[in-house]
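During the no-cost extension, the postdoctoral fellow (Dr. R.K.) reprocessed legacy sequence entries with the updated structure-token encoder. One reprocessed record is reproduced below for audit purposes.
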Amino acid sequence: MYSFLKRAYFILILFLFPSYCGSYGAEKISFQMNDAAMQERNTLFNEPVQDHPRLLFSIQDEQRIKQLKHKDPLLKELIALLKVKADQLLKTPMVRYELRARHSDLLMISREHVYRIITLSLAYRMFGDNKYAKRAEENLINVCNYPDWDPKHFLDVAEMTEAVAIGYDWLYNVLSNDTKGLIRKSLKEKALNRAVQEYATGDANSWAKRETNWNVVCNTGMIMGALAIADDERPMAEKIITEAVAYLPNSLNYYAPDGVWYEGMGYWDYTSTNLAMLLSSLNISLGHDYGLSEMPGISKTADFYVSALSPTGQMFNFADAVSTAPTNSPVFFYFSRRYNQPQLAAFYRAQLSKIIKSQSRFAKWHFFLCIPWYDNATTASVEEKPALNIFEDVYNPMMVFNGKSTSENSIYLIAKGGVSNLPHQHLDIGSFVLETNGVRWMDDPGATADDYALPGFWDYAPVTGQRWKYFRYNNFSHNTLSIDNHLQYSAGKGKIIKYDENAAQAFGIIDMTATYVNLASKVYRGFKLLSDNLMLIQDEVNLAPGSKQVEWTTITTAAVTVNGNTATLQKDGKSLYLKIIAPAGATFTTTEAMANSSDESPVTGYSLIKATVSPADGTNQTIQIVMSSDQNAINNTNITGDLTPLKNWK
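Re-encoded structure tokens follow.
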């Protein structure tokens, strides 16, 4: 566990602030408290706690935003959009608990209320019109009267707690006493009491202690709920904050060292947005965040996300990502201000401008936190992306290549190593996506939410795991290698073993050997940017005794024409050309990509391009394939005629 969170510290905290037997907050607080009682009520851990509002959006920031809106056109437009959406919610019916029957859980309803409460409560704070506070209060009463918030799927509880805590905190001075009492009772009974029990009895796979996004989301919800009602439930708040902060590093450690989130860029959005909410709430309420924001990789994580995006703004949808569209989360504003990274603010303002112009990209959920966290910081200029950017994550190391943006047919390629038996992973070690001229040529089929309910979907066991029988999730659907039509070994790890971002031809090499257990003694994959518009992928494989052939595969939504050792991809009036340089005589084939069973979500619109080769000596095989949108480039023997073994790359 991260060094700053020494268990001795937490033992001391627990000693100073012991939990009480029975239910918390049983004592009745007098309406006429003496000075000593009032001072105790407004403290946590013997330190003053910020008055309401203290979650996400302080009074000081509210004043900052109200002043800034008069001179920042984009902020003014966002506030105008807030009013439009809040006015719509004035007429939107309450969500009945019974509607959860449409889903397997309450999660979508919880997220709807995160959006509703943020939007209506923020509209009240921005415009001062009681109609927004009144409608928010009605929504709060509605969900607090639900029989439960679905504790069997605790994400639902956590996100509903976030919604209710924000409403209670932001509207504290206008909510009726009856409503505030109902909210406190609901937060305790439906969420916080359960959290205290889970911290005491939950095992390592508990939502409170596990290493996935659940840890961050659920502990964020519990801390926000505890902070919201800390005035009346101080011992409980101290208990929950102490426990949650102790277990959060179990998950946050995975951001080290470069900010990559191992569950994929889709879950990066979910995890990092909640992390930003957590850090913001702690810092406003207590003046610090227990050092969580200083853990390795966290200050770099938003910059990683932006650096990994393609020139078209699409993300690498590896792991269980359901889209290539970039997130519209306000997380970039939080991190830009927290770590003085104005390039993030500039990036996100550009995203917001697109949303203002075309609300088809408008996302609900936490979207309007872009107003409280708004950052108008500017950068001197937009820097050219480096030819190679390396992210040395332990669990999903990545390399990002970019040809110069001013060059015709400039190439973007992002590739990954990784380990596949971790949550939300696929058998995709060595896989990549590639773009030129605004077109994504090599794709990733990603995931679909409907597949989450498939039998054995969460079984990541090597070879026998049921997850791997579903097409989207195994190596046969990804841009990587297969040996004798076998699965990659999910417990193996692909590691970046060598790279040079400053070489005349930037390159990186991934050792994938551990993912081909008993199939090969060596599997290396190298990527080299031969020029701004020409990419080489070179694979070197030493087959194990009994192994026969290596299959090189890529998946695309483009139209494909193959001709011997060349393939032409066409899409949106543009083209990409592939050529096998080695081995001599190898040819491409193409087939339609299809799901393996009717149980899976259909796989439509994809084609597979394959090259299957057998070593001449039965063991050692090198595969060299070049690709470019410049047909002359792949035939330029001055470049392609001088390729060398990976060990000589420098």
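The longest strand covers residues 520-531. The radius of gyration is 27 Å. The remaining legacy entries will be reprocessed before the final report is submitted.
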